Give the backbone structure.
Amino acid sequence: MKTTLIGAAAAAVLAMPAFAQGADVPDNLEKLGNFQTTGTTEFTYVPQEGAFADGIRKTLERITLPEGFRIGLYAVVPDARHMAVGPQGIVTFVGTRKDKVWAVTDRNKDRVADEVKDFAPSLKFAIPNGPCFSKDGFLYIAEQNRVLLFPAAEFFYESPDVAAFNLVKQGELIPPEEESYNHTARVCRIGPDGKIYISLGQPFNVAPPEKLDLYREVGIGGIIRMNTDGTGREVYTYGIRNSVGHDFDPETGDLWFTDNQVDGMGDDIPPGELNHQTEMGQHFGAPWYGGGDVRTNEYAGQDVPYDVVMPAVEMTAHAADLGMTFYSGSMFPEEYRGAIFSAQHGSWNRTTPVGARVMVTHVAEDGTATSEPFAEGWIDGNGEYLGRPVDVAQLRDGSILVSDDLAGAIYRIWYEGM
Amino acid sequence: MKGLSALALGGLMLAGAAFGDAPPGDLEAGRKVAGLCRVCHGLQGVAQVPIAPHIAGEPVSYITRQLAAFRSGAREHEMMTVVARGLTDTQIADVATWYSAHTARASLPPGADGSAAPALCVTCHGETGIAVNPDAPNLAAETNIYLATQLKAFRSGKRRHEIMSGIAADLTDDEIRAYADWYAAMQLEVTEPGAPGPCGAAC
């Protein structure tokens, strides 16, 4: 098995010499691209037991789920954001909005992680929020303004020095002067066409008119796609405010994505969105619409210059729908197969907080979709957050993982039956 | 509760004496206003999300000035502009009083040498990121990306300040990241209003 993996990685390197030869290869990328050591030998390990873990387990006792389902602590992972489960099931990579990517390993396969350490510690990451895997084991990490590529990451992650390449060089995902810390948590997925799809949130509450031409050209406030050698970049989706979760329906190949809608219009409008895209270039309404069919004050009364696709599901206003995944496992009962599991981070300034839960969305044969809460209880009686779910990912056994960047944890939800 | 308030005011006067601030607002009212802030900045001013800074122990004048700038549009942020738009002068004074009444202390991480602190920054922000100039915010233990984002905003002109705009103008991306990494690595300790400090009776 190891021989196969090394072979795959070496082949990848040979096939992509351009990645290692950029004029301004940052940090240690050049060395890592040549399989040299950088001298960084220290991992940071996150303790998995103790009072902190016990506190999280106590919180989980109050989480409610449909009958037959259970939730437990899978791993303590600081600042845990979006997740990518390795296609071989060896390791789960977890992004953050800080400077670390965590590698989470369940070595004894008791479905509780027993090792959490930082991935590629010799690299300086900036908002490495979005990891995603190709089926053949290439890990991509979408950062604030760069996308890195790690061949055979499930094998190389055991060493501090991993083979690493630029897919999109620093400063070329968006123009550097457009960088922001807010709405800059990227997510990525490899589509059924083999291209990588990357979300690019726009940094404003409502994007101002003078930015719209640039944003349309670059794909800010949209989703872009490109070939996995970095060529052929194009804008796939327009009219998004800040999408931090997307996935492809394994049945139809269609892209579905969540979007976070405009603040400051009141507690109950505009609705959050779960969107369904059926062809390239569709426009989803921002900034003319603030969410659903609610028009923004800034563009009130103006003609909307595009045909706009309305959301497939209007979600609770301000609940902050983030990561999502289609369920393709067989552990859960029939009604959940093919459904969408998604995370609501929870509102940040609503009078009474809403969200902080896992939703499930059932898509009917005619394409209509309905959402309902699946796991909830992370808001206590004082309106205080005990956790804030970010992303949902599926393990090979058909259970699902839920990340939480407030508690700094990953939970596992499994089905035990009635 | 009365005892707590009295102690808190005592602490506040000490903090105020250092920077010449008079507490302009009401501590308890400020704690209630902080309900609007706590999802991101924490009720004690210790940030809960990496995009937000720690604000515990910042001078009243600093917090007031930033909130007023967000409210007027002089400083812009997708979330803070929405929040500040709805605040009255009294609410700003109260919430600034609340967060300022906390005490922030910082220490070097194990093995760090204070003389390696970025020379451009220490005159105002201190070696450990506890400001020594009332016009400057604390930087201790802020997320490095937050600090880098602010420095880049000063460099590009998106954010302006008579001293910081000039300092940031010529910084490279690598310098910005190095300075941000230094302060992000500090260990921050925050004490609530009225609580004895970490040094207890020895203080």
